[in-house]
Specification:
With about 200 residues, the protein is mainly α. It contains ten helices and no strands.
């Protein structure tokens, strides 16, 4: 993949156009020809930055993960979980096409290579979140009797659905307000009631 270590402004413009093309017309319409037409450049102009469609998808995922990971800082436990969920929604608010692409896996069905890239991203995200869940459990912030994978699905599933609904409705409701209601309910449901009774 011919990509500079630090993405240039032009590369980011290409990635933005690719994201919009996928959101509007689906992954099957993300081709070098369609993308070059949308960018008003030649196919060769695109090949200078990206070897092929798969390289573009990999770059999109890398950019999304890099932005999502930027929130880590010195947070631990439930504070880190909440910060990660808040940051995800803020990324979507800043780039609405993310809601219609990254959180809509059905767009990529039938494209095994792309599915594998997205599955890898999900697994890396799962590993990071499980670490913070264990920190929260050790600190007595949340209950510890829920299996790891179930906890991951209980927390991430509702957020993904919320973002997907927001994207499909073209931002018809206040995503931040609904996110805060969701986070409050999650904290209530997962609270370590045993510790509170001691």
């Amino acid at each position: 993949m011919r990509m500079k270590k630090n993405q240039s402004k032009r590369q980011n413009e290409i990635l933005d156009a690719a994201l919009h093309l996928i959101a509007e017309k689906g992954i099957r319409n993300l081709t070098i020809r369609h993308l070059s037409q949308a960018m008003h450049i030649t196919d060769a102009g695109l090949y200078y930055y990206f070897q092929d469609k798969l390289a573009i998808i990999q770059a999109l995922v890398s950019r999304f993960e890099g932005e999502a990971d930027a929130v880590k800082g010195n947070l631990y436990g439930w504070a880190a979980v909440e910060a990660a969920l808040i940051h995800r929604t803020e990324l979507v608010l800043a780039t609405p096409d993310l809601a219609r692409v990254v959180f809509a896996e059905e767009l990529f069905q039938g494209d095994p290579e792309v599915e594998q890239i997205l599955f890898g991203m999900m697994q890396r995200h799962r590993k990071m979140m499980l670490r913070h869940f264990r920190e929260a459990e050790d600190a007595g912030e949340i209950r510890s009797d829920i299996p790891d994978d179930t906890l991951f699905r209980l927390v991430l599933g509702p957020l993904r659905l919320l973002i997907k609904q927001w994207g499909m409705s073209h931002g018809a409701f206040d995503l931040r307000r609904e996110r805060e209601k969701l986070l409050k309910s999650m904290k209530l449901l997962l609270a370590n009631h045993k510790q509170g009774a001691e």
